[in-house]
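task queued by scheduler; priority normal; single chain, no ligands, no partner chains; default sampling; output format set to structure tokens
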Amino acid sequence: MIHQRKLEHLKICSSSDVEYRLKKTGFNDIELIHKALPQIDKEGISLKTEFLNKKLEAPIIITGITGGHPASREVNRELAKAAEKLKIGMGMGSQRAAVEHPDLLTTYTIIRDEAPSTFIIGNIGAPQIEYADKAADMMDLDALAIHLNPLQEAIQPEGDVNAKNYLKLIKETTESLEIPVIVKETGAGIKREDAIALEKAGVAAIDVAGSGGTSWAAVETYRSQDRSLGDLYWDWGIPTAVSTVEVSQSIKIPIISSGGIRTGLDMAKAIALGADAVGIALPLLNEAYKGHEAVMDRLKKYMEELKVAMFLVGASNREELKKCDLIIQGKTREWLTQRGINTDKYARRSSL
């Protein structure tokens, strides 16, 4: 049953090692160039941003974590409380469970109940895209995410691996829904060519959800009787830093950078590479079990770390951070260079 699978996912993510083993996000290859003369007042730095016409106090979105099991309700309650108080965005886990089992509806609607003014993103998987209308109508949503998870589906014992018509169906969904459609990966990243195709299909924003954070091949490995397939593909995917650059260099719609964001410095690097907002999931799950104040404390820590990074590069707001000088080195530079992206230009942007 799907609700049992949701519970298994929660337990595995909160108690087991589910992060990439060898492959990293690539943010360690990014060096923001220090500015000894910041020429700004750190106390005047603003994290305020606008995303899909919604004003946020910081460019942060709690990306979709859970829903679909009674245990999910309390997790979503605490996350929603934190999002509402901090005035940031929040996504939810796949709504498939509630579409198929209406008795699970409150495990999702609790989010809007606790966060009446928050930017809320719904969620349905591409394999269940026929549920998009019902998911969008389930509550007052600001956007609907369609998640792409071919890696997870390929490893999952009960996975759906027919992806022939995804792009066509996504285009039809963007045309039929009255709210913006966001397409997000689930931890394996999005490459330039896919991003271009999605923008042409009418998608309003893309969450790259790159590799280096939670590996859904890892999660499904714990659920499988035969671990060999999951072990083999544990580290599959495009690193988050790489995906952020590839996508931001290719499209004009807003970008969320998620997948292994673990500090405010990671956030700063993601935005400097071209992201409009950053997404966080796994680090906030365990905090949610402690309550919304613990979630808020972690997020406030990230925000302060982000502000310090902005101060040290002389950026008083998000747009200035996106123009700061930085160095791309190591495997990330090697990857991007082979993909035809000139990384040198990032080092001298402030003088152009």
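post-processing summary
- Residues 2-62+143-351 form a domain with the TIM Barrel fold (CATH 3.20.20.70).
- The longest strand covers residues 120-125.
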